[in-house]
Write a structure and sequence with these properties.
ABC transporter involved in vitamin B12 uptake, BtuC, 12 helices, 2% strand
């Protein structure tokens, strides 16, 4: 294989991991929500809120990790709000989620203008440094030169699998997502468990947004999330609500996204909009294939009322 081809492939694989990182966080967060029986369409707004809060705190405090931490707290607040609407009040989950997305998008944009003004100079931060696990080792050293948040996101996949499938708390989440009436009869607090799941999910979503502003971009822009939250919703179905499969779905989308960015640099005589739409077209195709055999939690989208 020629040297340019090797450089292209190595760069493509490295970019795939970076692009997949926010999707891993967002989809794992959505996994907690949906396993508990709540479809959280507020994910897009929560990621946007996390991107803004993380950037604003990191910019003014000088600590990017503090920005990530406060973004996670903001995500928990978003999950708590979703719980109030969908769990306590029984509001339609589609309406509640879309309302939260519009709310946090508007709040973030207004707050950004309020804090940073209308300056023509885009405020920015020095993003997180990349860490090489294998030093100067050829090829593999380049591929695994990533942000620490990327490594943490990959490690979260087996951790979330273990929590959902091997712990008492995970069993409770699955119970209220499959049969909340039976879970209540067994002495579980359905409202509390769903609330905890939504708060954990919101924190992970917001960290995915913070990754974009504090690592990937180093700034906050109005289109920074760019529909990634909706992609996470699709990836949940593609993964059939399994944590391990979330990683493969995120890598597929990340790989196509990284590929389209490189195809644009080759000077192909095609509209650039076609390249931009390629990852979403592949997501729709994968969803249409995998969605046929998808088995959602039985109580998903069904509000619970204790008699």
């Amino acid at each position: 294989m020629s040297t340019p081809a090797v450089i292209f492939i190595v760069g493509f694989l490295a970019a795939t991991l970076r692009v997949a990182t926010p999707l891993i966080y967002g989809t794992l967060g959505e996994l907690f929500c949906e396993r508990a029986g709540i479809l959280n369409l507020g994910i897009e707004g929560t990621m946007f809120l996390g991107a803004f809060v993380g950037f604003a705190v990191g910019y003014h405090s000088g600590s990017l990790w503090l920005g990530v931490a406060i973004a996670a707290v903001a995500g928990m607040v978003s999950g708590l709000l979703m719980s109030l609407l969908a769990v306590r009040f029984g509001v339609n989950q589609h309406v509640a989620g879309l309302g939260i997305t519009m709310l946090w998008t508007g709040v973030s944009l207004f707050s950004f203008r309020l804090i940073f003004g209308e300056s023509k100079v885009q405020p920015s931060v020095d993003p997180f440094p990349q860490i090489s696990l294998f030093g100067d080792t050829p090829i593999i050293g380049t591929i695994f030169t990533q942000y620490l948040l990327t490594y943490i996101g990959i490690l979260l996949v087996p951790l979330v699998w273990w929590i959902i499938n091997r712990t008492r708390f995970g069993l409770q989440i699955r119970a209220v997502g499959e049969n909340p009436e039976a879970a209540d009869a067994a002495g579980l607090n359905v409202y509390a468990i769903r609330t905890y799941a939504l708060m954990i999910g919101g924190a992970l979503m917001a960290v995915g947004g913070a990754f974009l502003s504090l690592a990937s971009v180093g700034a906050f822009t109005f289109g920074i999330v760019a529909g990634r939250g909706w992609v996470c919703i699709a990836l949940i179905i593609f993964a059939n609500w399994r944590a391990i499969s979330v990683l493969w779905g995120a890598l597929i989308f990340g790989g196509v996204q990284a590929l389209q960015l490189r195809l644009q640099t080759l000077g192909l005589k095609l509209p650039y909009e076609l390249f931009l739409s390629l990852p979403y077209l592949v997501t729709i195709l994968a969803l249409s294939i995998a969605g046929r055999n998808a088995a959602a939690p039985s109580a998903l989208l069904k509000p619970y009322r204790r008699e």
